[in-house]
Design goal:
The structure is a single chain. The protein is of the alpha+beta class. It contains two helices and four strands, in the order βαββαβ. A four-stranded antiparallel beta sheet has the order 2-3-1-4, with helices on one face. Strand 2 and strand 3 form a beta hairpin. The longest helix is centred in the first third of the chain and has 19 residues. The relative contact order is 0.33. InterPro entries: DUF503, TT1725-like_sf. It holds the Pfam family DUF503.
Length: about 100
């Protein structure tokens, strides 16, 4: 069993309040879940309205699938016009490690 995850550090565009932040982050989380069938959550920078950290994770039988899905997720997030992807840290771990 392989477990993979990516943590994204994101700068939000024209956002001036936590309410506006939610209006950007919630649809992004829902779209990632729907499109890629991954677990996703806002994992940091909760009180900063222009920044967020998102965690995306999945479990698979082989490493190649993990790498493929997480790379597609990163391309999708990086391509969103309303956000700026500052960094992405990815990790894969085998259950026997």
């Amino acid at each position: 069993m392989w477990i993979g995850w990516t943590e994204f550090d994101i700068l939000l565009g024209d956002v001036h309040s936590l309410k506006e932040k939610r209006s950007v982050v919630r649809p992004l989380l829902a779209e990632l879940k729907r499109r890629f069938e991954v677990s996703v959550a806002e994992v940091g920078d909760h009180s900063h309205y222009r920044r967020t950290r998102l965690g995306v994770g999945l479990v698979a039988a082989d490493r190649a699938h993990i790498v493929e899905v997480l790379a597609a997720v990163e391309r999708f997030v990086a391509g969103r016009p309303e956000i700026e992807l500052l960094s992405a840290r990815q990790r894969e771990l085998h259950s026997e490690d």
